[in-house]
Design goal:
Order of helices and strands of chain C: HHHHHHHH
Helix content of chain A: 55-70%
CATH architecture of one domain in chain C: Up-down Bundle
Largest sheet of chain A: 3 strands, antiparallel
Strand content of chain A: 5-15%
Number of helices of chain C: 8
Radius of gyration of chain C: 24 Å
Number of strands of chain C: 0
Chains: A mainly alpha (833), B mainly alpha (103), C mainly alpha (204)
Helix content of chain C: 55-70%
Strand content of chain C: under 5%
Number of strands of chain A: 11
Largest sheet of chain C: none
Shape of chain A: elongated
Distance between the termini of chain A: 120 Å
Oligomer: heterotrimer
Largest interface: B-C, 72 and 88 residues
Shape of chain C: extended
């Protein structure tokens, strides 16, 4: 690609995506005011005008999707990436490898001295065993791209466009700007977010329709006197918040520097806060909103620390600078890793030092690089509800269901995973190991709690936590593509399932307890089938021989394969501790299938458990089922033909494909693509087996009723209670943080009351006393003086009055006497004159 | 030539002046008071003219006395008019009755 | 001769003034006042101020005193012809007057008039008596000089000397006095006019 085409394409992409990004903001502004005024102008229309807000929001986000799609087409045309031709790379079963002979040797030649791939040797054997011959790197470049590859050297940012929208400020070397960084991942996120958001917006028009009234009765708010709370509907406000959220999320994805990411990160948090607390009058909703917000702040604290370290040692916030016009200025990724993606670590007396590229001879201590990585990942922990900050996500289900679908399952919580993926080049193997373990713990905790949850939305929420754990685990074990792959597929089927649950809740008149449902298949078949598609997708079921499954199957396989490759690669170094990283996701795959089918059986199959609910249940209107159908299509087929995987591959950081070892603090070796491909088959079969077992067990328990779940519950009462109590996390945090804070608060209150207030009271008494003294002084001396002057003047006047006799002759006498007195004085004082 | 010095004229002026003052201070008749004023002014005039001759004043002293005479005449006219008015209002010329300005 | 004339005029002036004080009858007071003022005019002639003396006679004796006598005639009818002062106030006034007189006369006598005149001669060069213009010794032709001085020209001071800045005359005071006299004329006429009642016709 020549610089001219680069600039041309970059500018086009910039404006297309920028427009897609800013449209929801415009929508938000119009909706929040227009909805308000529209209602005020015409209260009789009873919501018809307010509905304009919804159409506005749908229009904005839908246009955003079209723009994203066209941006993708332009980008693909400009960068020559081949999504389908290289798809065989990702095909499972027998066709799952490529001929890396050329490229691979190339790598070996480059890095043989670093001794990073004994792992590779195994992969090589595998290659030879496979008779397939494929062109193209693992990074998804086309056949003729290999030459391209040669002539470009190792340009890891060949398909990325970066630049600046608007420079906000320049403080010395600190440059704060609205940047963009567009590569395959950005475009993919844009398309995914806008598509899902469009579906959910449309769905919400139906779901939120009962807000289209001037007198909304909230059945969950009990006022004293047994009445319910009444308020005007907030239809327009809901869509305004959704638009604002879309704007923030797209801004986060488009952001070209980590600081900008942070800004939108917080904006997204605010939107989440607003939407969780949408029914602000409900105590549970406002508490949940606060909980989500505060827990995210804990993570963001780490984010801030990471930002500080990065700024101190790197002097820039930009991700990477791919603009040929300003090739000298490098971004964070280019400073940390060279074109081949390798860290330049030197052992010195003060410890390991990482030399940064970019000409200025900057260095950063290795441990600080780790700290920065863990700090940034801390933000991701909070946002993506990872252990130990996961409890806010289930509580966030207090928001309306479309919000849960959009914000708390498909997009916002995925922002943490996205950032981890985006920031991948900055993470050292130690950080990655941390990420892997965090993800491992999270996925297990989430899945186990989901088994016992009975609220339909909470099951999905815990499932979300668990799936996010999967993604983190994948990223941690080196399966970069696998993690983000799962992010996309999960977004589709999880939003699908949430919308289905929303449809169920809507149809059952806001009944969320699964124990009161059952047999709803007959009442709402479209919802049931769509939900079944989602359940099958998340469980990762497939037809064993053909290796054809729904989207979740591919991505979950990729994760399990990455985990297996990582475990086998590090068996020597961290031995025992590596085992859970594979076993946990495998077991949890089974658990996932179990609880997801449990959900489906409890809701849609079997006899109705509560006839009141059953009788009133009805299928949702088409404005709600249509999005379900669209999302179902994507949940089924988005992973087919490998397009998605290759699309993600185009954005993969350079160092991931070849794997590698590190021996700085923990001796780790990251699995290369070869290694992962090598175990893909094994892992896929294992995961499928686990899923089938889980699904079968679920059918036994909840469909056929062969074993009564209550019996099992009773025999494992302790475990059940532990899980119902969510692993005691809430209680633990309550004891660890909330109560101590309350105690400290009481101390502070006591201190305030006893010491500060006493001091203040003493001060006020002192002031009173002083002022009373002052008053006395005023009254006695000042007033006395003034009165004295007045009264003496008056007295003098009174006494002089007697002199004024009015007698002319007396006056003449006075004059004469006065003259004589003057003469007398003259003689007395000037006798000689 | 042994002439009369300035002292003699000054003494006559002083006597006229003091007589005028006493006249003003004792007469209850308004016209009498006016006469006292004329005497006082005359005493002053004698002094002016005496210094005009014996002192450095020259012609200025005489001119000053001329002005005094003219003003005295004017004053007499106005004062007589006032006295007549007073008489019309009070039916007397006793200045002790004119004590409206008493404080 | 001069001493004699001075004695006569001075005695007449002083005696007239004292008589004015002592007299209780207002008509007599007017008569004594005429004597006193006339004698004063004589003193002016002795001081070679012929114009001032003539003016004194014309205005005072001929005008003012006549005016006073008119006033007496208009007011002092019957019981008001003599208004007696109380003896106490008379004594008090005479005592104060005596003190005043003693003080003034004492002051006059204390001054060294000859030394003063010598000092003045030293200051003004020649004897003041020799100054040209008005003061031909023993004669009193001051009328012309006063007339020109009132019109603004000072022949008595400016003639025969090369002064850079001429002495000022009395034109402005002269004008002011003339306006003053006019105002007094009108004012007096207004004040002294007879009050007339406006009779309201009774047939309405």
């Amino acid at each position: 690609m020549t610089p001219e085409t680069y600039i041309q394409t970059g500018t086009t992409l910039k404006w297309l995506l920028g427009l897609a990004w800013l449209l929801p903001l415009v929508g938000f502004c119009i909706e929040i005011y227009g909805g308000h005024w529209g209602r005020r102008l015409d209260p009789a229309s009873n919501g018809k005008k307010v509905k304009l807000a919804a159409y506005m929001a749908v229009f904005c986000i839908g246009t955003g999707f079209l723009l994203s799609l066209s941006a993708f087409v332009i980008w693909k045309g400009a960068t020559d990436v081949q999504l389908v031709a290289a798809a065989h790379d990702a095909e499972h079963g027998d066709a799952h490898d490529s001929d890396h002979a050329g490229g691979h040797d190339d790598h070996e030649g480059h890095h043989a001295d670093e001794g990073h791939d004994h792992e590779h040797a195994g992969g090589h054997d595998h290659d030879d065993a496979d008779g397939h011959s494929h062109e193209g790197e693992a990074r998804g470049q086309s056949p003729d791209e290999s030459e391209h590859h040669e002539e470009h050297g190792n340009d890891p940012y060949a398909a990325a466009f970066s630049g600046t929208f608007y420079e906000l400020a320049h403080f010395g070397k600190l440059r704060i700007a609205i940047d963009y960084y567009i590569d395959g991942l950005t475009l993919l996120m844009f398309c995914m977010v806008t598509l899902i958001a469009t579906c959910i917006h449309v769905f919400a028009i139906g779901y939120m329709s009962d807000e289209l009234t001037e007198d909304y009765e909230d059945h969950f708010v009990h006022l004293p006197g047994g009445k319910h709370f009444h308020r005007p509907g907030r239809f327009y406000r809901f869509f305004a918040f959704l638009s604002l959220f879309s704007f923030s999320m797209l801004g986060l994805v488009l952001a070209g520097n980590i600081f900008q990411v942070f800004v939108f990160w917080e904006l997204v948090g605010v939107c989440s806060y607003l939407l969780i607390g949408f029914y602000v009058e409900r105590h549970s909703a406002s508490t949940a909103a606060n909980k989500a917000f505060i827990m995210n702040r804990v993570g963001d604290f780490g984010f801030l620390i990471g930002l500080m370290i990065l700024w101190t040692y790197f002097g820039t916030f930009q991700f990477a600078n791919t603009d040929p016009a300003s090739a000298g200025e490098v971004g964070l990724f280019q400073m940390v890793r060279d074109a081949d993606g390798h860290l330049d670590v030197a052992e010195t007396e003060e410890g390991s030092i990482v030399s940064l590229h970019g000409g200025e001879g900057r260095t950063i201590p290795y441990w600080l690089l780790i700290a920065a990585g863990i700090g940034i990942f801390g933000g991701c922990i909070g946002k993506s509800a990872q252990f130990p900050l996961q409890p806010w996500l289930p509580d966030a289900m207090e928001g309306p269901t479309p919000v849960s679908a959009l914000v708390h399952s498909a997009t916002m919580v995925a922002a943490g995973v996205y950032l981890t993926g985006r920031f991948y080049p900055m993470f050292t193997p130690e950080v990655l190991l941390t990420i892997a373990y965090i993800g491992c713990i999270t996925l297990f905790i989430g899945a186990t709690i989901a088994i016992v949850a009975t609220d339909i939305k909470r099951v999905l929420a815990y499932s979300t936590i668990s799936q996010l754990g999967y993604m983190m685990l994948a990223l941690g074990v080196g399966g970069w593509v696998a993690g983000l792959y799962h992010l996309i597929t999960h977004a589709f089927f999880k939003s699908l399932m949430f919308l289905c649950s929303g449809s169920v809740i809507h149809g059952c008149h806001h009944e969320q307890e699964m124990t009161k449902m059952g047999g709803l298949y007959k009442k709402m078949p479209i919802t049931a089938i769509a939900m079944l598609i989602g359940v099958v997708a998340i469980s990762g079921l497939a037809i064993p021989i053909l290796n054809v499954g729904l989207s979740g199957f591919y991505s979950k396989d990729a994760i399990v394969a990455s985990a297996l490759a990582f475990m086998s690669g590090n068996r020597d170094t961290i031995s025992f501790f590596a085992i859970p990283l594979f076993v946990m996701p495998l077991v949890t795959a089974g658990i996932t299938a179990f609880y997801m089918f449990r959900l489906w059986f409890m809701t849609f199959a079997g006899p109705p458990k509560d006839h009141h609910v059953y009788d009133h249940a009805h299928e949702s209107p088409s404005v709600m089922t249509l999005p379900l159908i669209v999302l179902s299509v994507f949940a089924i087929g988005c992973a087919w033909f490998g397009i998605l995987e290759n699309w993600i591959l185009t954005a993969e950081p350079a160092h991931v494909a070849v794997g590698g070892t590190s021996a700085h603090h923990v001796a780790l070796s990251m699995p290369s693509h070869h290694a992962i491909h090598g175990v893909h088959h094994t892992a896929g079969i294992a995961a499928l087996f686990a899923a089938v077992v889980g699904a079968a067990l679920s059918a036994v328990f909840y469909w056929k009723g062969l074993v009564d779940p209550n019996l099992v519950k009773r025999s494992f009462a302790g475990v059940h209670h532990f899980l119902v109590e969510k692993w005691q996390f809430d209680n633990l945090y309550d004891a660890m943080f909330v109560r101590p804070v309350h105690i400290v608060a009481r101390w502070c209150t006591a201190f305030d009351k006893n010491v500060l207030d006493a001091f203040l009271h003493w001060l006020s008494r002192l002031t009173l006393a002083t002022s009373s003294w002052d008053r006395k002084f005023d009254e006695t001396f000042v007033d006395g003086l003034v009165n004295l002057v007045g009264s003496s003047t008056y007295k003098v006047g009174r006494s002089l009055q007697t002199v004024q006799t009015g007698s002319l002759r007396l006056y003449v006498m006075f004059i004469a006497l006065g003259v004589m007195a003057l003469f007398g004085l003259l003689f007395m004082f000037f006798p000689s004159a | 030539m042994e002439g009369v010095g300035v002292q003699g004229y000054l003494a006559v002026g002083a006597v006229l002046f003091v007589c005028g003052v006493i006249c003003m201070a004792t007469k209850r008749n308004g016209i009498g008071v006016l006469m006292g004023v004329e005497l006082v002014l005359n005493g002053a005039n004698v002094n002016f003219v005496a210094f005009s001759k014996f002192g450095p004043l020259g012609l200025d002293g005489q001119i000053a006395s001329l002005f005094v005479i003219v003003l005295a005449a004017a004053e007499a006219a106005v004062a007589l008019a006032i006295a007549l008015n007073f008489y019309n209002n009070h039916l007397t010329i006793d200045v002790d009755r004119a004590n409206e300005l008493q404080g | 001769m001069e001493m004699f004339l001075f004695t006569v005029f001075a005695a007449a002036a002083c005696g007239g003034a004292i008589a004015v004080v002592l007299s209780q009858n207002v008509v007599r007071m007017a008569f004594y006042l005429v004597i006193s003022l006339g004698s004063t005019a004589g003193l002016f002639f002795m001081l070679s101020a012929d114009f001032v003396g003539a003016t004194q006679l014309l205005i005072y004796v001929g005008g003012t005193v006549v005016l006073l006598i008119f006033g007496v005639m208009l007011t002092a009818s019957g019981p008001f012809l003599t208004i007696k002062s109380s003896p106490g106030s008379m004594v008090l006034a005479i005592a104060v007057g005596a003190c005043f007189l003693m003080m003034v006369v004492g002051t006059v006598l204390q001054v060294d008039w000859d030394g003063n005149a010598a000092r003045l001669e030293g200051q003004y060069g020649a004897s003041s008596l020799d100054r040209p213009g008005y003061n031909q010794h023993g004669e009193g032709h001051t009328t012309r000089s006063i007339g020109t001085a009132l019109l603004g020209a000072r022949f008595d001071k400016d003639l025969g000397k090369n002064r850079e800045q001429p002495s000022t005359g009395y034109l402005l005071p002269f004008e002011i006095v003339s306006v003053h006299l006019l105002v007094v004329l009108i004012g007096a006429a207004y004040l002294a006019r007879a009050k007339r009642r406006v009779h309201v016709p009774s047939e309405f």
